[in-house]
Amino acid sequence: MNYEITYTKREDYYIPNLTLTKSKYSDYKLAKYGRIRARYLKEHKKAEYTILLIDGKLDEHLYNTDIECKKRFDLLMKQFAERENITEELKATNQMKWVQKMNAIKNAVEEIIFKELIYI
User: Fold this and answer.
1) What are the two backbone dihedrals, phi and then psi, of residue 10, each rounded to the nearest 5 degrees?
2) CA–CA separation, 73 and 120 (whole Å)
3) Is 18 within a domain?
4) Could you give the maximum distance between any two Cα atoms of the chain, in Å?
5) For residue range 28-68, what is the model confidence (pLDDT) as tens digits?
6) Alpha helices, DSSP H only, in the chain?
7) Is residue 113 assigned to a domain?
8) Closest by alpha carbon to 107, among 76, 84, 85, 86?
9) Which of 2, 32, 83, 88 has the most CB atoms at less than 10 Å from its CB?
10) CA 36 to CA 30: how far, in whole Å?
C-alpha cells in the first residue's frame, strides 16, 4: 500500500491532512456490551484501541463483540432458567420469587459475559 500524506500550511507550521475512513459498521448504534467493551479498551488497553481505530477496525470489532454478547446472553439465560426450573407457571403463581431468581441468573450470566468476552 502506498500512502501519500498531504499537508496544509497554517502560519509557520505544516499540519498533515489526516482523516479516518468510514466503515460500514459506524452507523450501528452500540448497545450495552459494545459500549462497555469500547470503554474498557479506551481505559485499559490503549494500544489495542488505537491500533483498531487507526486500522479502521474498531467499529467492526465493537459491532461483533456486541452481537456475540447478545447471542451469548440469550443462550445462557435460557439454559440457566431451564436448569433452575424457572417457568412461566412460577411467574404466574409467585411473581416476586420469579423476579428474584431471574435477577440472580442475569447477574451470573453477565459476569460470565464480562469475563469471557468483554474484559479480555
Assistant:
1) -125, 110
2) 17
3) no
4) 77
5) 899 999 999 999 999 999 999 999 998 889 999 999 999 99
6) 32-44, 46-55, 58-83, 88-93, 95-113
7) yes
8) 76
9) 32
10) 10
- 85-100 pLDDT, tens per residue? 999 999 999 999 999 9
Instruction: Answer whether residue 50 is part of any domain.
Output: yes
Number of domains into which the chain is organized = 1
Following CA atoms 85, 86, 88, 91 in sequence, which dihedral angle do they give, to the nearest 10 degrees?
Answer: 140
Kindly report the length of the chain. Answer: 120
State which residues form the domain around 103.
30-118
On whether residue 17 sits in a domain, the answer given is no
Task: State the first-to-last Cα distance of the chain, in angstroms, to the nearest integer.
Answer: 31
CB 109 within 8 A of CB 81: no
Residues contacting residue 34 through CB under 8 Å, at least 6 positions apart: 62, 63, 65, 66, 69
- CA distances 102 to 21, 42, 115, Å, are 43, 32, 20
Pairwise CA distance, residues 43 & 115, whole Å: 17
